[in-house]
Amino acid sequence: MGVAGLPLPGVETGIAASAVVLGMAVVLARRPPLWVAAAVVSFFAVFHGHAHATEMPDAANPVAYAAGFVLGTGLLHLAGIALGLFVHSPGGLLAVRALGGVIGATGFGFLAGVL
């Protein structure tokens, strides 16, 4: 949609809301059923994907640009997995939940217009 120039209302709001929802899920240690988690992530992915596609420079090679995002996303997932393993260490659960709080608070700050 973003590459095609189709507008999507509320992109920035959707991205900030994703930080609030997913950050709070970490803080509260919520583990919804897989289908619920997939639906929530898919919903928010539309906003993130639209923003990235819309912001692609005109001079950029779309394939290289997309490959960079795939690589970046993979590295972020690996970092998340590593951080998730930290939960089992002393103080790890508290640290991970605190980081979830920082993510949620940052999203709320964007929604409130503070950031």
TrEMBL record:
List where the protein spans the membrane.
6-27, 34-51, 63-87, 94-114
Q: Mind telling me which InterPro entries this protein's record contains?
A: HupE_UreJ (IPR007038)
UniProt entry keywords in alphabetical sequence: Membrane, Transmembrane, Transmembrane helix
Pfam family membership, one: HupE_UreJ
The organism's superkingdom is given as Bacteria
- Coiled-coil region: none
> What is the protein name given in its UniProt record?
HupE/UreJ family protein
Native species of this protein? Answer: Paracoccus benzoatiresistens
